[in-house]
């Protein structure tokens, strides 16, 4: 297993993981500050956390209620 981990191109994967974490944190902070969403807030929390990158992007596209 250690040999397999050594073969992983971490120079490519690490920035994607960092971007994913930053986007998730920003989405959760925005969700906490906003008053109206399309759907229940608790559902968006689960989508953002468990759907990873796509969940955060979906929140910013669909979840925020446009005024």
How many domains make up the coordinates?
1
- Radius of gyration from the alpha-carbon trace, in angstroms: 15 Å
Give helix and strand order, one letter per element, not per position.
HHHH
What is the overall number of helices?
4
**What percentage of residues falls in helices of 4 or more residues?**
over 70%
Could you give a short account of the major beta sheet? none
Distance between the first and last residues' Cα:
51 Å
According to DSSP, the number of beta strands is 0
Which structural class is indicated by helix and strand composition? Answer: mainly alpha
Strand content: under 5%
- So what's the overall shape? elongated
Contiguous low-pLDDT stretches (5 residues minimum) are: none
Characterization of the model:
The chain is an all-alpha fold and 67 residues long. It has one domain. It is built from four helices and no strands. It is elongated, with a radius of gyration of 15 Å. The N and C termini lie far apart (51 Å).
